[in-house]
User: Which sequence fits this backbone?
């Protein structure tokens, strides 16, 4: 799939193929062209692929998560060249800053830009590690995973920041380890995995859990349903991010670049809002 073959596709089909809008594609091409011009000024062997094809190859990798071997054969280059091109595109976009997230500091600003935030965690399966397997084994998913915490602004549907950990770590422990501190006026909505968050942030709401001695009343169930309807936006955001199969399917690569790729995908999602 070369760019010449798909450039006349409709907006809808282009987004279904690449995972991003055509306007976003054009913005990224501008960023990559400037970075490529600096590389050419330094000299060296010219790249066989155009900027458009290099970006398309990266999007194909993130969206479909085919192997480097299969993608390299589609574009007529070696497997190592395919890896270098994809890595260069990812690093260039991250360094540019246009697709950066607001970050944890934005949640502490005194002017309170965010009224309500949704906090949730999602898991990505990985191949069984050779060492320290227990650290990555998720009792919830019954497999080895990487856990990602996502904080979303409820009004704008914008992802504010992310945090990463191994699959064994509990959701609330991941929240404490992430070092996220919320402004007292910001209201946070979480699920039952964040029991104890009131000690860190009093303006929090989470569903009430039933026990054998204290079953839920009709009023408690009504409040839980209302809270769930407010929190469903977070699940929708996670679903939009997981259109890119590299963070939804079993992650085969080294875990070092997982956070970079996840944040890049989230940054593109934010930009398209």
Assistant:
């Amino acid at each position: 799939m070369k760019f010449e073959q798909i450039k006349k596709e409709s907006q809808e089909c282009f987004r279904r193929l690449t995972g991003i809008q055509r306007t976003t594609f054009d913005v990224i091409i501008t960023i990559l062209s400037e970075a490529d011009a600096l590389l050419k000024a330094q000299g060296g062997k010219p790249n066989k692929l155009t900027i458009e094809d290099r970006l398309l190859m990266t999007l194909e990798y993130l969206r479909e998560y085919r192997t480097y071997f299969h993608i390299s054969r589609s574009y007529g280059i070696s497997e190592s060249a395919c890896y270098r091109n994809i890595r260069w595109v990812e690093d260039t976009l991250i360094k540019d800053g246009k697709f950066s997230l607001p970050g944890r500091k934005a949640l502490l600003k005194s002017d309170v830009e965010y009224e309500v935030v949704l906090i949730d965690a999602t898991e990505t399966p990985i191949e069984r590690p050779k060492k320290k397997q227990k650290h990555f084994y998720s009792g919830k998913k019954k497999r080895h995973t990487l856990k990602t915490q996502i904080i979303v602004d409820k009004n704008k549907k914008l992802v504010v920041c992310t945090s990463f950990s191994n699959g064994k770590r509990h959701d609330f422990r991941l929240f404490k380890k992430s070092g996220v501190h919320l402004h007292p006026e910001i209201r946070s909505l979480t699920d039952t995995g964040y029991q104890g968050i009131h000690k860190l942030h009093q303006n929090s709401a989470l569903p009430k859990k039933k026990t054998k001695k204290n079953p839920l009343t009709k009023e408690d169930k009504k409040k839980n349903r209302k809270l769930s309807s407010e929190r469903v936006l977070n699940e929708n955001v996670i679903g939009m991010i997981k259109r890119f199969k590299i963070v939804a399917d079993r992650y085969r690569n080294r875990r070092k670049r997982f956070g970079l790729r996840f944040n890049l995908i989230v940054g593109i999602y934010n930009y398209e809002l």
